[in-house]
Task: structure prediction
Amino acid sequence: MKNKNEFTDFIFEEILEKESQDTLTTALSSLSIKTVHVMREINNKSDLSHEYMLPPSTSKIIFKKAYLFYDISLLQFLKIKDKDSEKPIILAFGGDIKKNALILEKERGIDILLNPISEKLSFDTSSSNLAKENKVIIGFNLNLFREKPYSSIKQARFIIFLLIKNRIDMKFCSCARKINDLIDPIITQSILLNFELEKEGTRRMLMKGKD
Result:
């Protein structure tokens, strides 16, 4: 059972190349982040061919594998190795409404649709129904809200309204590429109150991954 003050986050694999494990563990622990899903970005087939090495989990931090696909046609090349004791989380990067609909199809096997945001309407009632039917979590990159606050928050507000209405699971994560990208979950809870999410609900969303 998770401690009530232990949170989950998703970060990019490249942060492992920039920071020592001790530095990263210290930073995550200071934010009460216990479980970290390390995302490998999949842009082409070769991204799946080299070894995926995670730091060993400790009593302080549990590291888990995750794959973020920008092109879902590459899913066919993903092979989960027998030595993986736990199935990695599969994410797909969102885009326009057509791309999001393809990602949400049941046979894709996607766990999380990340950032279903584009310049135009990218998520509607049909998208919401697909997500609910196929049990796909909708994920949001909190750093995107910081980088493009007006456009991203405006769209996210509408999407989150649909998700709440249909009781669809959401996940908010830092998607950190460097230490400074990590976000204090306590601050995140305050930010998410602007989306009319009640405090205890935001805590639950920050604590769970696709466990």
Residues 7-207 form a domain with the TIM Barrel fold (CATH 3.20.20.140). Residues 21 and 31 are 15 Å apart (CA to CA).
